Protein: Methylglyoxal synthase
Amino acid sequence: MSRISFTTATLPARKRIALVAHDHCKQYLLDWSERQRDRLARHHLLATGTTGQLLGQRLQLPIESMISGPLGGDQQLGARIAERRVDMLVFFWDPFEPQPHDPDIKALLRVAAVWNIPVACNESSADYLLASTLMEQAHDYRIPDYDSYLQGRR
Structure:
């Protein structure tokens, strides 16, 4: 079994923040986003389908929307994380309700952990992330060294 090597990358000062919420949590995300609107406005925002439409209407900010989560939007965001095109994930998920696309959700959270991006799963953790001094500055962090990984597979 080979071990993954790591390298350093830099999160930019202007973050690409993915916003996701299960149906029962959409209102919580909308309310939280409205409270954090001024901070969120300084960053590039992405969201899955319906959540993106609702956020765009509520915040009057540009939101790059994927397709709906159950139709593949979670996987779209996961791909963006792996491509290093998402810097932070705010995912208000419903721990009380089973989701038909649980494997996609687990994959999204896994890829966020693999690529070492900040993840908030509720209002409190999202508040802490946005209040961090690192939100407004570039920040070095550790990521898998994909080139080294490819060399080891030959």
User: Anything to note?
Assistant: The mean pLDDT is 91. The radius of gyration is 16 Å. The chain has seven helices and seven strands. The chain has one domain: 14-139.
